[in-house]
Protein backbone atom coordinates (compact mmCIF):
# COMPACT_ATOMS: atom_id res chain seq x y z
CA UNK A 1 0.00 0.00 0.00
CA UNK A 2 1.53 3.28 -1.10
CA UNK A 3 1.58 6.08 1.46
CA UNK A 4 0.61 9.54 0.18
CA UNK A 5 1.28 12.67 2.22
CA UNK A 6 -1.69 14.99 1.76
CA UNK A 7 -0.85 18.50 2.91
CA UNK A 8 -4.03 20.26 3.91
CA UNK A 9 -5.62 16.84 4.28
CA UNK A 10 -8.00 18.06 7.01
CA UNK A 11 -9.48 20.69 4.71
CA UNK A 12 -12.46 20.59 2.37
CA UNK A 13 -10.96 19.19 -0.84
CA UNK A 14 -8.06 17.51 0.97
CA UNK A 15 -10.32 15.40 3.18
CA UNK A 16 -12.49 14.30 0.26
CA UNK A 17 -9.31 13.32 -1.58
CA UNK A 18 -8.07 11.32 1.41
CA UNK A 19 -11.33 9.36 1.38
CA UNK A 20 -10.97 8.67 -2.34
CA UNK A 21 -7.31 7.69 -1.95
CA UNK A 22 -8.23 5.12 0.70
CA UNK A 23 -10.96 3.71 -1.54
CA UNK A 24 -8.31 3.12 -4.21
CA UNK A 25 -5.87 1.33 -1.95
CA UNK A 26 -3.59 4.19 -0.86
CA UNK A 27 -2.80 5.19 2.73
CA UNK A 28 -3.38 8.96 3.05
CA UNK A 29 -1.41 10.78 5.74
CA UNK A 30 -2.97 14.18 6.39
CA UNK A 31 -0.44 16.91 7.23
CA UNK A 32 -2.39 19.93 8.46
CA UNK A 33 -1.94 22.71 11.02
CA UNK A 34 -5.73 22.71 11.63
CA UNK A 35 -5.88 26.49 11.33
CA UNK A 36 -8.59 26.03 8.71
CA UNK A 37 -8.93 22.26 8.59
CA UNK A 38 -10.76 19.98 11.01
CA UNK A 39 -9.38 16.97 12.85
CA UNK A 40 -12.71 15.12 12.58
CA UNK A 41 -12.36 15.18 8.78
CA UNK A 42 -9.31 12.88 9.04
CA UNK A 43 -10.80 9.37 9.05
CA UNK A 44 -8.93 7.32 6.46
CA UNK A 45 -5.36 7.56 7.72
CA UNK A 46 -3.21 9.26 10.34
CA UNK A 47 -3.18 12.99 11.06
CA UNK A 48 0.13 14.79 11.50
CA UNK A 49 -0.47 18.24 12.92
CA UNK A 50 2.12 20.56 11.48
CA UNK A 51 2.73 23.73 9.49
CA UNK A 52 4.23 23.70 5.98
CA UNK A 53 6.28 26.74 7.00
CA UNK A 54 7.99 24.50 9.59
CA UNK A 55 10.54 22.52 7.59
CA UNK A 56 11.52 20.47 10.65
CA UNK A 57 7.91 19.33 11.09
CA UNK A 58 7.72 18.37 7.42
CA UNK A 59 10.98 16.45 7.64
CA UNK A 60 9.70 14.58 10.70
CA UNK A 61 6.52 13.59 8.83
CA UNK A 62 8.57 12.32 5.88
CA UNK A 63 10.96 10.49 8.19
CA UNK A 64 8.14 8.68 9.97
CA UNK A 65 5.79 7.88 7.09
CA UNK A 66 8.12 7.72 4.06
CA UNK A 67 5.47 8.73 1.51
CA UNK A 68 5.80 7.65 -2.08
CA UNK A 69 4.01 10.77 -3.27
CA UNK A 70 2.61 14.12 -2.12
CA UNK A 71 -0.71 15.76 -2.91
CA UNK A 72 -0.30 19.41 -1.97
CA UNK A 73 -3.42 21.32 -0.94
CA UNK A 74 -2.14 23.33 2.04
CA UNK A 75 -2.57 27.00 1.14
CA UNK A 76 -4.60 30.11 1.76
CA UNK A 77 -7.36 30.17 -0.85
CA UNK A 78 -9.66 33.20 -0.67
CA UNK A 79 -9.50 35.80 -3.43
CA UNK A 80 -10.92 38.60 -1.28
CA UNK A 81 -8.63 37.87 1.65
CA UNK A 82 -5.63 37.79 -0.66
CA UNK A 83 -6.33 41.38 -1.67
CA UNK A 84 -6.03 42.54 1.95
CA UNK A 85 -3.34 40.05 3.11
CA UNK A 86 -1.04 39.54 0.11
CA UNK A 87 2.11 38.86 2.13
CA UNK A 88 0.45 36.00 4.00
CA UNK A 89 -0.54 34.46 0.66
CA UNK A 90 2.96 34.62 -0.73
CA UNK A 91 4.51 33.38 2.50
CA UNK A 92 2.27 30.33 2.88
CA UNK A 93 1.47 29.49 -0.73
CA UNK A 94 4.95 30.05 -2.14
CA UNK A 95 7.44 29.57 0.70
CA UNK A 96 5.36 26.68 2.04
CA UNK A 97 5.50 24.91 -1.32
CA UNK A 98 9.29 25.33 -1.44
CA UNK A 99 9.51 23.65 1.97
CA UNK A 100 7.39 20.75 0.77
CA UNK A 101 9.60 20.25 -2.28
CA UNK A 102 12.77 20.41 -0.19
CA UNK A 103 11.41 17.76 2.17
CA UNK A 104 10.44 15.59 -0.81
CA UNK A 105 13.95 15.79 -2.22
CA UNK A 106 15.53 15.02 1.12
CA UNK A 107 13.54 11.79 1.38
CA UNK A 108 13.62 10.85 -2.33
CA UNK A 109 9.90 11.41 -2.94
CA UNK A 110 9.65 12.32 -6.60
CA UNK A 111 5.92 12.59 -7.29
CA UNK A 112 3.65 15.53 -6.48
CA UNK A 113 0.10 16.50 -7.44
CA UNK A 114 -0.35 20.25 -6.99
CA UNK A 115 -3.60 22.02 -6.24
CA UNK A 116 -3.63 25.06 -8.52
CA UNK A 117 -6.51 27.26 -9.64
CA UNK A 118 -8.33 28.89 -12.51
CA UNK A 119 -7.41 32.15 -10.75
CA UNK A 120 -4.04 31.93 -12.52
CA UNK A 121 -5.78 32.91 -15.78
CA UNK A 122 -7.06 36.25 -14.53
CA UNK A 123 -9.56 37.64 -17.05
CA UNK A 124 -9.22 35.29 -20.05
CA UNK A 125 -9.46 36.42 -23.65
CA UNK A 126 -11.66 33.45 -24.55
CA UNK A 127 -14.10 31.05 -22.93
CA UNK A 128 -13.92 28.18 -22.24
CA UNK A 129 -10.33 28.38 -21.03
CA UNK A 130 -7.71 25.97 -22.38
CA UNK A 131 -4.53 25.10 -20.51
CA UNK A 132 -2.25 27.10 -22.81
CA UNK A 133 -4.28 30.31 -22.40
CA UNK A 134 -2.27 33.29 -21.10
CA UNK A 135 -1.94 33.35 -17.32
CA UNK A 136 -2.43 36.90 -16.06
CA UNK A 137 -3.69 36.73 -12.47
CA UNK A 138 -5.53 39.77 -11.12
CA UNK A 139 -5.25 38.97 -7.43
CA UNK A 140 -2.50 37.78 -5.07
CA UNK A 141 -4.14 34.38 -4.61
CA UNK A 142 -3.97 33.65 -8.33
CA UNK A 143 -0.45 35.07 -8.56
CA UNK A 144 0.75 32.87 -5.68
CA UNK A 145 -0.63 29.79 -7.44
CA UNK A 146 1.04 30.79 -10.70
CA UNK A 147 4.38 31.20 -8.92
CA UNK A 148 3.83 27.75 -7.40
CA UNK A 149 3.33 26.30 -10.88
CA UNK A 150 6.51 27.98 -12.09
CA UNK A 151 8.50 26.65 -9.14
CA UNK A 152 7.29 23.12 -9.85
CA UNK A 153 8.06 23.45 -13.56
CA UNK A 154 11.66 24.43 -12.84
CA UNK A 155 12.06 21.85 -10.05
CA UNK A 156 10.64 19.14 -12.31
CA UNK A 157 13.45 19.67 -14.79
CA UNK A 158 16.25 20.25 -12.29
CA UNK A 159 15.32 17.54 -9.78
CA UNK A 160 13.64 14.91 -12.00
CA UNK A 161 10.23 15.25 -10.38
CA UNK A 162 6.95 13.86 -11.69
CA UNK A 163 4.41 16.68 -11.44
CA UNK A 164 0.68 17.02 -12.02
CA UNK A 165 -0.64 20.59 -11.88
CA UNK A 166 -4.42 20.66 -11.53
CA UNK A 167 -6.14 23.99 -12.14
CA UNK A 168 -9.63 23.60 -10.86
CA UNK A 169 -12.54 25.87 -10.99
CA UNK A 170 -15.21 26.30 -8.28
CA UNK A 171 -15.21 23.36 -5.89
CA UNK A 172 -18.61 22.83 -4.30
CA UNK A 173 -20.97 20.23 -2.89
CA UNK A 174 -20.15 17.59 -0.29
CA UNK A 175 -19.54 13.88 0.12
CA UNK A 176 -22.70 12.11 -1.15
CA UNK A 177 -22.36 9.55 1.64
CA UNK A 178 -22.56 12.31 4.24
CA UNK A 179 -19.22 11.68 5.95
CA UNK A 180 -17.76 15.08 5.06
CA UNK A 181 -19.08 18.61 4.74
CA UNK A 182 -17.91 22.02 3.59
CA UNK A 183 -17.05 23.80 6.83
CA UNK A 184 -15.11 27.06 6.90
CA UNK A 185 -14.78 29.56 9.71
CA UNK A 186 -15.72 32.13 8.66
CA UNK A 187 -17.71 30.67 5.80
CA UNK A 188 -17.20 32.59 2.55
CA UNK A 189 -18.37 30.20 -0.16
CA UNK A 190 -21.53 30.85 -2.10
CA UNK A 191 -23.57 27.66 -1.74
CA UNK A 192 -23.24 27.09 2.02
CA UNK A 193 -23.93 30.78 2.66
CA UNK A 194 -27.01 30.65 0.44
CA UNK A 195 -28.24 27.56 2.28
CA UNK A 196 -27.67 29.20 5.65
CA UNK A 197 -29.49 32.34 4.54
CA UNK A 198 -32.46 30.35 3.25
CA UNK A 199 -32.76 28.17 6.34
CA UNK A 200 -32.38 31.01 8.83
CA UNK A 201 -29.02 29.85 10.12
CA UNK A 202 -27.23 32.87 8.70
CA UNK A 203 -27.77 36.44 7.50
CA UNK A 204 -28.98 37.44 4.03
CA UNK A 205 -26.65 36.50 1.21
CA UNK A 206 -24.58 39.35 -0.19
CA UNK A 207 -24.04 39.37 -3.97
CA UNK A 208 -21.04 41.37 -5.15
CA UNK A 209 -21.95 42.87 -8.51
CA UNK A 210 -25.12 42.66 -10.56
CA UNK A 211 -23.84 44.62 -13.57
CA UNK A 212 -21.34 42.20 -15.11
CA UNK A 213 -21.48 41.61 -18.89
CA UNK A 214 -23.27 38.28 -18.40
CA UNK A 215 -26.77 37.03 -19.12
CA UNK A 216 -28.18 38.08 -15.74
CA UNK A 217 -25.54 40.56 -14.57
CA UNK A 218 -23.89 38.30 -12.00
CA UNK A 219 -20.57 36.47 -12.24
CA UNK A 220 -20.55 33.13 -14.02
CA UNK A 221 -18.46 30.25 -12.76
CA UNK A 222 -17.79 26.59 -13.52
CA UNK A 223 -18.96 24.67 -10.44
CA UNK A 224 -17.48 21.19 -10.03
CA UNK A 225 -18.38 18.73 -7.31
CA UNK A 226 -15.67 18.19 -4.71
CA UNK A 227 -15.91 14.39 -5.06
CA UNK A 228 -15.27 14.71 -8.80
CA UNK A 229 -12.19 16.80 -7.99
CA UNK A 230 -11.01 14.24 -5.46
CA UNK A 231 -11.29 11.48 -8.05
CA UNK A 232 -9.25 13.55 -10.51
CA UNK A 233 -6.42 13.96 -7.99
CA UNK A 234 -6.25 10.21 -7.52
CA UNK A 235 -6.31 9.56 -11.27
CA UNK A 236 -3.55 12.13 -11.80
CA UNK A 237 -1.46 10.35 -9.18
CA UNK A 238 -2.06 6.99 -10.82
CA UNK A 239 -1.10 8.53 -14.18
CA UNK A 240 2.26 9.62 -12.77
CA UNK A 241 2.82 6.34 -10.92
CA UNK A 242 2.36 4.48 -14.21
CA UNK A 243 5.42 6.28 -15.56
CA UNK A 244 3.55 8.75 -17.74
CA UNK A 245 4.78 12.28 -18.30
CA UNK A 246 4.02 15.26 -16.09
CA UNK A 247 0.87 17.16 -16.92
CA UNK A 248 -1.07 20.38 -16.42
CA UNK A 249 -4.85 20.09 -16.53
CA UNK A 250 -8.01 22.11 -16.07
CA UNK A 251 -10.70 20.50 -13.92
CA UNK A 252 -14.19 21.78 -14.59
CA UNK A 253 -17.42 20.96 -16.38
CA UNK A 254 -17.33 23.42 -19.27
CA UNK A 255 -20.67 24.85 -18.13
CA UNK A 256 -21.09 28.44 -16.93
CA UNK A 257 -23.50 28.91 -14.03
CA UNK A 258 -24.32 32.39 -12.81
CA UNK A 259 -24.60 33.39 -9.17
CA UNK A 260 -28.32 33.98 -9.65
CA UNK A 261 -28.68 30.51 -11.17
CA UNK A 262 -27.00 28.98 -8.14
CA UNK A 263 -29.36 30.88 -5.86
CA UNK A 264 -32.30 29.63 -7.93
CA UNK A 265 -31.00 26.07 -7.56
CA UNK A 266 -30.77 26.46 -3.78
CA UNK A 267 -34.33 27.73 -3.65
CA UNK A 268 -35.51 24.91 -5.90
CA UNK A 269 -33.74 22.12 -4.00
CA UNK A 270 -34.60 23.16 -0.45
CA UNK A 271 -37.89 24.90 -1.31
CA UNK A 272 -37.05 28.07 0.61
CA UNK A 273 -36.28 31.63 -0.44
CA UNK A 274 -32.72 32.95 -0.18
CA UNK A 275 -32.79 36.50 1.28
CA UNK A 276 -30.42 38.73 -0.70
CA UNK A 277 -28.44 41.94 -0.33
CA UNK A 278 -26.94 43.47 -3.49
CA UNK A 279 -23.53 45.14 -3.30
CA UNK A 280 -20.96 46.63 -5.65
CA UNK A 281 -18.43 44.53 -7.52
CA UNK A 282 -15.47 43.26 -5.54
CA UNK A 283 -11.89 43.79 -6.67
CA UNK A 284 -10.26 40.66 -8.04
CA UNK A 285 -13.39 38.93 -9.41
CA UNK A 286 -13.38 38.14 -13.16
CA UNK A 287 -16.82 38.19 -14.83
CA UNK A 288 -16.64 34.64 -16.24
CA UNK A 289 -14.44 31.60 -15.64
CA UNK A 290 -15.27 28.36 -17.46
CA UNK A 291 -12.99 25.40 -18.12
CA UNK A 292 -12.19 23.46 -21.21
CA UNK A 293 -11.42 20.17 -19.45
CA UNK A 294 -11.17 17.98 -22.55
CA UNK A 295 -7.46 17.35 -21.96
CA UNK A 296 -8.19 16.02 -18.47
CA UNK A 297 -10.77 13.71 -20.00
CA UNK A 298 -8.28 12.47 -22.59
CA UNK A 299 -5.28 11.99 -20.28
CA UNK A 300 -6.76 10.82 -16.96
CA UNK A 301 -10.32 9.94 -17.87
CA UNK A 302 -11.79 12.89 -15.98
CA UNK A 303 -15.56 12.84 -16.28
CA UNK A 304 -17.53 14.80 -13.68
CA UNK A 305 -20.39 12.59 -12.50
CA UNK A 306 -21.82 14.67 -9.66
CA UNK A 307 -21.35 18.19 -11.00
CA UNK A 308 -24.92 19.06 -11.98
CA UNK A 309 -25.81 22.18 -10.04
CA UNK A 310 -28.87 20.61 -8.35
CA UNK A 311 -26.78 17.59 -7.28
CA UNK A 312 -24.08 19.89 -5.92
CA UNK A 313 -26.64 21.89 -3.95
CA UNK A 314 -28.45 18.80 -2.68
CA UNK A 315 -25.30 17.13 -1.36
CA UNK A 316 -24.17 20.40 0.23
CA UNK A 317 -27.58 20.93 1.85
CA UNK A 318 -27.88 17.42 3.28
CA UNK A 319 -24.35 17.55 4.69
CA UNK A 320 -24.82 21.03 6.11
CA UNK A 321 -28.02 20.12 7.89
CA UNK A 322 -26.22 17.19 9.52
CA UNK A 323 -23.35 19.36 10.65
CA UNK A 324 -24.34 21.89 13.31
CA UNK A 325 -20.80 23.26 13.46
CA UNK A 326 -21.03 24.14 9.79
CA UNK A 327 -23.89 26.58 10.26
CA UNK A 328 -23.04 30.25 10.04
CA UNK A 329 -22.49 31.92 13.39
CA UNK A 330 -22.97 35.49 12.16
CA UNK A 331 -25.75 37.49 13.74
CA UNK A 332 -28.90 37.83 11.68
CA UNK A 333 -29.20 41.07 9.78
CA UNK A 334 -25.50 41.28 8.90
CA UNK A 335 -25.01 40.22 5.28
CA UNK A 336 -22.71 37.27 4.62
CA UNK A 337 -20.05 37.75 1.96
CA UNK A 338 -19.94 35.11 -0.75
CA UNK A 339 -16.73 34.14 -2.50
CA UNK A 340 -16.36 32.74 -6.00
CA UNK A 341 -12.95 31.96 -7.43
Cα-to-Cα separation, first versus last residue: 35 Å
Strand count, sense and barrel status of the largest sheet are: 7 strands, parallel
| Mean pLDDT figure | 94
Morphology call: globular
Strands in their spatial order, largest beta sheet:
3-2-1-4-5-6-11
Radius of gyration, rounded?
Answer: 19 Å
- What share of the residues does DSSP label as strand, in percent? 15-25%
* Number of E-type strands: 15
Helix content: 25-40%
What are the low-pLDDT stretches, counting only 5+ consecutive residues below 50? 325-337
Number of helices: 10
State the secondary-structure class: alpha/beta
How would you describe the overall organization of this protein?
By secondary structure, this protein is an alpha/beta fold. The chain contains 10 helices and 15 strands. The strands form 4 sheets. It has a 7-stranded parallel sheet with strand order 3-2-1-4-5-6-11, with helices on both faces. The longest helix is centred in the first third of the chain and has 21 residues, at 86-106. It starts with a strand and ends with a strand.
Task: Reconstruct the topology from this structure.
Layout (H helix, E strand, L loop, with lengths): L2 E5 L4 H12 L3 E6 L14 E3 L5 H11 L3 E4 L6 H6 L1 H21 L4 E7 L22 H20 L2 E7 L1 E3 L17 H10 L5 E4 L11 E2 L1 E3 H16 L5 E5 L5 E2 H12 L5 E4 L8 E2 L4 H7 L8 H14 L13 E2 L4
Parallel strand pairs: 1-2, 1-4, 2-3, 4-5, 5-6, 6-11, 7-10, 8-13, 8-15, 9-14
Antiparallel strand pairs: 9-12
Amino acid sequence: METVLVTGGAGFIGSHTCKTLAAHGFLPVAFDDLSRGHADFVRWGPLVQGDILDLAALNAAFERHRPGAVIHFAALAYVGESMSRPLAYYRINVAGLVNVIEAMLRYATRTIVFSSSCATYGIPDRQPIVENAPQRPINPYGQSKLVGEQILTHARSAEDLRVAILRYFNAAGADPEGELVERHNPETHLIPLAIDAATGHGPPLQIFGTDYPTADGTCERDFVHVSDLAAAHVEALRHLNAGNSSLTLNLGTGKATSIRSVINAVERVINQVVPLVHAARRAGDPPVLVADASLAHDLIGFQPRLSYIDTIVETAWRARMRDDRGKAKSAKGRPASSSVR
